[in-house]
Amino acid sequence: MTSPSWSSPRAVFWDMDGTLVDSEPLWGIATYELSERLGRRLTPELRAATVGGSFDHTLRVCAEHAGVSVDPRRARELHDAMFARVGALFSESLAPRPGVLPFLEALRARGIPMLVTTNTERSLADKAIAAVGERFFRDSVAGDEVARFKPAPDMYLEAARRVGAAPGECLVFEDSRAGMTAALGAGCRVVGLPEEESDLVEGALSMRAAAGSRSFEGVGADDVERWFTLSARA
């Protein structure tokens, strides 16, 4: 029996929050505090609905839950307060997810270009990228640098443009529905690692199914070639 023939992606794009770094609990703290500022704490279900979204989306969820309207000036004040809070939390306790650093080293040694693609705005994205290691990434695309946030495909179309590849030649790691939807909408191949398998978007390859868990521990560059091939069939 012959072994399968795997193909290699032209580039790998990494979501940041919840994929490269375990920052979603920190965003959760700030999001709950935002909702309390507006008068009513979010339920866990509504908090989950904000994962991977933009600040505008999060503010809309919080305001609707509280039954209040927010004018542009107040929205800017809330934005600045929330991002200052998240920045402080990042400085205190942000770290790469287990297995991420050895995996990035393996991909770097293989010569596969990597970019960070995150809805997080540049001021905070740079803090997280520094916590992981800027040396791993050729470039990054932040949420305030494209016309539309995820789940729109803009970010992934821009990332593919920057590496000179077609979206279908690129592999994406994403944990949120918004992110998976964005990457698939751009035409990229996607490995999805949502916390709940029920949140896997159709068309994404389940990392749990492919690797046995959503952890990057023990995975390597050969796995990327295998997943890139399998993701075309997802």
Automatic annotation (TrEMBL):
Superkingdom to which the source organism belongs: Bacteria
SUPFAM superfamilies reported in the protein's UniProt record: HAD-like
Name of the molecule in the record: Phosphatase
Transmembrane segments: none
